[in-house]
Amino acid sequence: MKKIAAVILSLIFMFSMSACSSQDMESQNVVSISMTNAESSTENTEQSENDILHESTDSFENNHILIAYFTRWGNTNYPDDIDASVSASIVDNENIRYGTTEYIANMIAEEVNGDLYRIETIKPYTDNFEKLRNVNHNEMEQNFLPELKENDIDIAKYDTVFIGYPVWATDVPQAVISFMTKYDLSGKTVIPFCTHDGYGAGGSYQTIAEKSHAAVSLDGIAIESSYVSDAKNTVGDWLTAIGISDFDERNETAIQILVGDTILNGILYDTALAEEIKEYFPLTISMVGYGGREYYGGVDFYPENLEDGQRTFENGDITYCESHHNMAIFYNQTDNPDLSVDVIPIGHITSDLSVFDGLGSRADITFSLVE
Ligand SMILES: Cc1cc2nc3c(=O)[nH]c(=O)nc-3n(C[C@H](O)[C@H](O)[C@H](O)COP(=O)(O)O)c2cc1C
Q: Domain-by-domain residue ranges, the chain?
């Protein structure tokens, strides 16, 4: 049943693909961030995987965090003259090319000081999307596990393993299952992260939790491919919320948001306004859905530490609005993304936001500090 649903969803995805991929990639304004390991791992596509791993681990000798990721770049027979600006799976940053998921993997590695490892199959995949889609469906149908290239990775030394991948047919590519089968991840903390073209993580987090036999599976993050170049703060907030990056350094506060029966992770920013509002936690607000994009509700305190506001938002933003004297959670960029009043972001929800899609017109939402 899960597979039939996956095939149907990926067909929907295929029809919408041509509309969103190349133009989005063309318009990407790739941020310049320091990615020492990424440069060494992608500069030369002929470089062997062992060399890549060696360079990564050299700089992080006492590391206990591994960021293993699969991506089309490095696993695909692309023609030599492939144009990165029209390919859906290549991010070009100052003439260095990354896979979409690889770009996020590098952000994580930089933030948590982890070792990078690109999962590579012995047999490369086709660069033709339709053919690749069929190959993937067949691999899924037959539970085929593509063989991975050999390497000298010492999995025992890592207690935390991030697993990154592009969502394929609403699930993980089979090569990721090969990785989880080849390496013993039992007893470890496993954290999924993925990129996708608009349909979210699908069933992939569950697959990772099941197939990795992890002792602890933490909340994953799913980033739409057209946003990867601007995802640095989102990734940083998520890492803080799941307790992996250094709270003291970032000075953000981990919070939880209870929506019905669902607990979402988030952070409060290190601002005077957020600090002031934090004093009222746990804080339950009766919120009303508006415009398919936000839930808002009045508060009965009047903060003093106000800042300049803004009329735009990112999905997941938690805001305070002075003129309406309320707080809001934004969860969906609609075709009406500009606000009529200023809001001040005080924090951000890092968990999946789909709980808001099916929520009724009114809901009690509770903000609390993580114990
Ligand atoms: C075979 C295949 C299946 C895909 N299936 C989905 C899907 O079900 N949902 C979705 O949102 N994106 C899907 N995508 C898009 C990729 O997840 C997305 O472009 C991703 O960011 C590519 O990452 P990469 O460059 O690291 O490979 C699919 C792409 C391919 C090639």
A: 2-247, 251-369
Q: Does the CB atom of residue 101 touch ligand 1 within 6 A?
A: yes
- At the second CATH level, the architecture of 251-369 is Beta Barrel (2.40)
Tell me, in angstroms, the distance from the centre of ligand 1 to residue 167's CA: 5
pTM of the model: 0.67
Ligand 1 pocket test, candidate residues 15, 76, 167, most atoms within 8 A of CB: 167
In CATH, the number for domain 2-247 is 3.40.50.360
One-letter-per-residue 3-state SS of the chain: CHHHHHHHHHHHHHHHHHHHHHHHHHCCCCCCCCCHHHHHHHCCCCCCHHHHHHHHHHCCCCCCEEEEECCCCCCECCCCCCCHHHCCCEEEECCEEEEHHHHHHHHHHHHHCCEEEECCECCCECCCHHHHHHHHHHHHHCCCCCCECCCCCCHHHCCEEEEEEECECCECCHHHHHHHHHCCCCCCEEEEEEEECCCCCCCHHHHHHHHHCCCEECCCEEEEHHHHHHCHHHHHHHHHHCCCCCHHHHCCEEEEEEECCEEEEEEECCCHHHHHHHCCCCEEEEEEEECCCEEEEECCCCCCCCCCCECCCCCCEEEEECCCCEEEEECCCCCCCCCCCCEEEEEEECCCCHHHCCCCCEEEEEEEECC
Q: What is the mean pLDDT of each run of 10 residues along the chain (371 residues)?
A: 51 45 27 26 35 35 82 88 67 78 94 93 95 97 97 92 97 98 95 95 96 91 91 89 71 92 93 96 97 96 94 92 96 83 95 91 96 77
| Ligand 1 centroid distance, CA of 196 (Å) | 5
Any atom of ligand 1 within 6 Å of the Cβ of 234: no
pLDDT of residue 78: 84
| Ligand 1 contacts CB of residue 359 (under 6 A) | no
Pocket test for ligand 1, best of 89, 138, 221 (most atoms within 8 A of CB): 89
